[in-house]
Amino acid sequence: MKKLLIFLYLFAAQTQAQNYFVYVAAESDDTVSLLKFDGDDISELERFDVGYYPTEIEGPHGITVGPNGDYWYLSLAHGNPFGKLIKYSTKDNKVVGETSLGLFPATMQISSVTGLLYCVNFNLHGKMSPSTVSVVDPETMTEIKKITTGAMPHGSRMSPDGLKQYSVSMMSSELYEIDALDLSVSRKMNLENKISEKKKMSMNHSMDNKKMMNSAKEMNHSNNMKEHVMKMKSSMHMSDVKPTWVIHHPNKKTLYVAGNGSNEIIEIDSEKWKISKRIKTQKGPYNVEVSPNGKYLVATLKGEGSTAIWDLENNYKTNVIKNSTTVSHGIAISNDSKYAFISVEGVGGEPGIVDVINLNDSKLISSVE
């Protein structure tokens, strides 16, 4: 019997001779699989349970492997009431430590300089209010600080030098830069297109007023009408960008952000701290990665069931590859920049699938359920 598997945030493909090893999480099944790719075929070596509550789906969400390869880390999104960060040994995939984080912890990475782990708290089921990035000492598995950022922070990555952590907030459409040394927000950026935002505000102004007046009528003009209207104003958000991911180029001062709502990749000059280009895409870019050699930009198009590959050395020449099923999601790129591993969610009775794409010729060469 096929099970619904949703694969999320596939990270850290590691090479050893001709073999590549990949961890992938099944969010709806509370399992993690260890996969092996030998250059021709990908297969599942092992699948193990990662949840704590037998009657609940706890949602394994983010995965990262430590810099020395001895440990891997998993965020469990749902908890009681908060989510968890779990530390596993890569030798036997057994738990060696854990700690509680915030509401719905998601993506994370460890700084090669500080040795600290930075994990966003996505706060999926909370109020649309600023959330946090948890900073954890992975040696002792102790949370040492929560840094406030935007509403629903999601995709996050370290800079190549390990000195900055970047994350994007879906509902406030902001990019945040955290100084990895002093553990504070050093810069932030509004990712909205200023021109379209002005048009949108003008078009939506009368509509918003109408909604508030209708809501006020439903309250029968109670004494709390004014307070209710103010609450509605403060909770409304005009964003269309809904950024889901950010990645820093390995050797250029450039960031790439997935505009999931606006169907674009936003290129940012990280030195001048300004948007340098907006690249239109097909529907729903979700995760974004750059190959270690800096040549390829890879994005999953979640709304299209496809993966887009841009040649950064050839004026953003684009190839779009159809994935095995309909909901493309996570990305990991091998250390030698040859292969992209793409997680594809299962829908209904479909299994989740991991596709392997050869980046040199943009062809899908192997898949595993």
Explained architecture:
It is built from 2 helices and 28 strands. The protein has helices spanning 194-218, 225-235, and strands at 7-16, 19-26, 31-37, 42-49, 60-65, 71-76, 84-89, 95-100, 105-110, 117-121, 130-137, 142-151, 153-158, 164-169, 174-179, 184-190, 243-248, 254-259, 264-269, 274-280, 285-290, 296-301, 306-311, 317-322, 327-333, 339-345, 353-358, 363-368. It has a 4-stranded antiparallel beta sheet with strand order 1-2-3-4, with no helix packed on it. A 4-stranded antiparallel beta sheet has the order 5-6-7-8, with no helix packed on it. The radius of gyration is 21 Å and the shape is globular.
pLDDT averaged over residues: 87
Head-to-tail CA distance between termini: 13 Å
Q: Any idea what the shape is?
A: globular
Order of helices and strands: EEEEEEEEEEEEEEEEHHEEEEEEEEEEEE
Query: How much beta, percentage-wise?
Result: over 45%
The DSSP helix count reads 2
Which structural class best describes the helix and strand composition? mainly beta
Q: Uncertain regions: pLDDT < 50 for 5+ in a row?
A: 1-16, 218-236
Main sheet specs: 4 strands, antiparallel
